[in-house]
Here is the input.
Amino acid sequence: MTAALPPTVLRNVLTALMLAIFLGALDQTIVAVSLPAISAQFNDVGLLAWVISGYMVAMTVAVPIYGKLGDLYGRRRMILTGISLFTLASIACALAQDMQQLVLARVLQGIGAGGMVSVSQAIIGDFVPPRERGRYQGYFSSMYAVASVAGPVLGGWLTEYLSWRWVFWINLPLGLVALYAIRRALAGMPVQRREARVDYLGALLLILGLGSLLLGITLVGQGHAWTALPVLALFGCAGLGLVLFISHERRCQEPLLPLNLFGNRVAVLCWGVIFFASFQSISLTMLMPLRYQGITGAGADSAALHLLPLAIGLPIGAFTGGRMTSFTGRFKPQILAGAILMPIAIFAMAITPPQSALLSGVFMLLVGIACGLQFPTSLVGTQSAVDIKDIGVATSTTNLFRSLGGAMGVACMSSLLLALLHQGGLEVLGNPLLGSLQAGAPEPAMQVRLLDTFRHLLMGSAVASLLGLVAAAALPDKQLRGR
Here is the structure.
């Protein structure tokens, strides 16, 4: 730990970092509702999905690079760089004149967001003892939940009453406030720097490997077959890039991602836990509104409200898990409780029809709590298991697995949903990623077939969550140091 901070200073730092986290998380959700308006103005559907996918892919790839640069040159410099790039790219998004310009600006925006999210969490690892980190990481997780609720509502209001461009213009004042707050909160804080060379070749190979992997996964989630030529080509590039990256990192004096971290049992198991927790939470955020709309014929606004229990449960679980970690000094019980609760709650959702609003809401609340119990505590477990000099890269790797889990969850569940719909002769849902639903409730026979389709899909999701339970059960139950 770099230094102990007075409570007032730590509070100011936490507030500023939470604003940065919220800003990066908000742009993952606020843009989705403006896609029809963007498509109508530019008359371009082919690149529409990349307005969101480009942002998430760039953010995921940038996370480990920011983590290493923060370890080398100081986190204050890196987070200010990320916020500045994010804010400037938001202006470029708002001024875009065609879909190509918008997608490029979104990629730059995602690169900036990668620094805001990963470096914020690493800063807490610098200034807070391991035993207390769960509480603060729980606050950060609550920002994701708030963004998941506020994003669609705010985005819909801005698009309806102003313009879709205001979805990006709103980042200008928020970004400037975050820039000022973090610059002031982190001013004068001790920074440990060391002379080192940046592994530019490693960064290039990692971008090639992870970028190709995520692009391939994204194509599958958009309806392409796993055996389609573009998908196979991207997966081939991903395999080649990652093999070359590993080979290079083994010989590099200052590796971008120290491979010895993957020999750390606690860190690897925590990454497995957070991968499958994110797999479930992101894929269910996409699936549950589709299930609700497809079976009941409700509108998009009602489907968004249907997700509210899931969003409410996440900060409850994060707050409870963080407090319990600080109180007991152990992180495994909270992770294991969330991992046990997850498959039970998803299976219960599978056998509960969406028309049963109360029961569905309760089970979705439990899924949110299960996710919240695992997210911050897994990060605390990872940070406590590595050396101080590796906290930045370990934190960014945790965020990397969280992003990979979400991307893989959407791709796998979307492709499985498409296969089940095709097998059952159901075309009512169209492309699940774009949510192109037909108006009105379907015929009773169609409702029964849709219920059966989504029941099988959710049961498959519950089975997948058992892998996260295996990783949680294998974690050693260690006592955290510090108060």
About this structure: Confidence is low (pLDDT under 50) at residues 428-439. The chain has 17 helices and no strands.
